[in-house]
Amino acid sequence: MFTTFMFATGIENSIPTINNGRTRIDEMEKCGHYKYWQTDFDLVKELGLQVLRYGPPLYTTFIGPGRYDWSFADTTFRELEKREIIPIVDLCHFGVPDWIENFQNPDFPELFASYAEAFAARYPWVQLYTPINEMFVCALFSAAYGWWNEQLKSDRAFVTALKHMVKANVLAMERILRIRPDAIFIQSESSEYFHAENPAAIKPAEIMNAKRFLSLDLNYGRRIDSEMYEYVMDNGMTREEYHFFLDRSSLRHHCIMGNDYYLSNEHRVKANGITTAAGDVFGYDEITRQYYDRFRLPVMHTETNLMEGPKGDEAANWLWKQWANVLRVRNNGVPIVGFTWYSLTDQVDWNSALRQEDNCICPVGLYDLDRQIRPVGRGYKQLIEDWCDVLPAQSVCLTLPIVYPYEYNEAPVLRHRERARRLFSNRQDDVQQASR
C-alpha cells in the first residue's frame, strides 16, 4: 500500500474551444504528447515520480451517448499500469465534446457521469480521480469572462455552468464509487484571494472572496453564505438543485482538497470591481489555511509553475518558494499529502489563457518540448530525492490508503475495498432517505 507523500507532475490536457466553438485548443496535441507519450512516461520515472495527473482527451474519447473510443486510453493506461505509475485521472479539463456543445447544456451532468462510470469499469485498477478540473476557473472563463466554450458574460451563465459542472463532478464520484468503492477524489481547484485596493473596494472584494468558495461549497455539500445563496438563487439555481448538493455531503469523506496556486491567484480589486494581478502577497500557505479552515479536508498542492525567464533560475526559485510554503502548511498542522509541479513539459498559449491560438511556447515545464530537462526539472528531481523518505517518517501513524496498480487484487486491499463498499452503501441509503 502506497503510504508516502505524493510528489506528482501532470500532462497538460486542456481542451477548451474558442472562436464560438470553431477552434479546439488541444494541449496534448500542441505539446506533442500524442507523438511522445512513451518518452513522457520515461521522463516521469526519470524524475523519481510515482504519481501523474493524467487523462485521455474527453472530446475524442466520449464520442456520443454511450459511445466511446478507448483506443488511445487503452494504450496509455496499459503502459501506466505496466510502469507502476499511479495516475490521478483528469477526466474533464476545461472542455467537452462538440456534440455536448458546452457547459450550459443541462444534460451534461448525467452524460458525464455515464462516461466516468464507463471509464472506471474499463480501468478498475485506477483509484485516484479529478473528475472535473478547476470548476470555478472553467465556469469563470467560459461563462463570466466569455473566453472559452459558450463564451458568455453574465452571472446567470456563470451560475448555470458552475452548477452543471459541480453536479457532474458529484454524480461522477457516486458512479465511480460503485465500481471502485475505495476511490479517492482530488479536487484540483484554484485557490484565490481578492485584496481591496482602497476602502471603496472592500465590498466588491468581499463578494469575490465569497464567490471563490462556491464550487467547493457545493461539491462538499456545505451550506453557502446568505449573500451567495441569494446570488445563486437570483441567477437560476433552484431549491431542488441546491438541496441535491447538500444531500450528498457524505461524499466529502472520499476527497482530498487540491489547491492550485500560481502567481496570478491573488488579485487587487478596484472600487468598480475591476481586478488586476497582485502577485504572491499572502502566498500558498495563508490562502490554503483559509480553505482548510472552511472545509477541514486533507490538502494537496495540485498545480503550480512559473515561466523560466532570462536568468534561467526563475522557475527553480519559485519551486523552492512553493515547497517552503508546503512545509509551512504541514508544520502548522494542516494534513497536506502531496505536491505537484504542473506540467511535465512546456505548455502552449497559456500566456493568453488559451484565448488565442498563437502557438506561443510557455517555458513552464520540467522539460522543454524537445524533452530536454530544464533547471526546475533538475531542482524537482533533487527535491524529491532529498525529501521522499523524510516526510513519511515524521508521520508513521498516518498513511494514505492508496495502492499501486499491481496491488489491486491483493488480500489487504480487497478487505479495505469491501469495508469501503459497505460504508458507501450505507451513505447512499442515507442520501435516498434524505431525498424522499
From TrEMBL:
InterPro entries: GH (IPR017853), Glyco_hydro_1 (IPR001360), Glycosyl_Hydrolase_39 (IPR051923). Gene3D superfamilies: Glycosidases (3.20.20.80). This is Family 1 glycosylhydrolase. Pfam families: Glyco_hydro_1 (PF00232). GO terms for molecular function: hydrolase activity, hydrolyzing O-glycosyl compounds. GO terms for biological process: carbohydrate metabolic process.
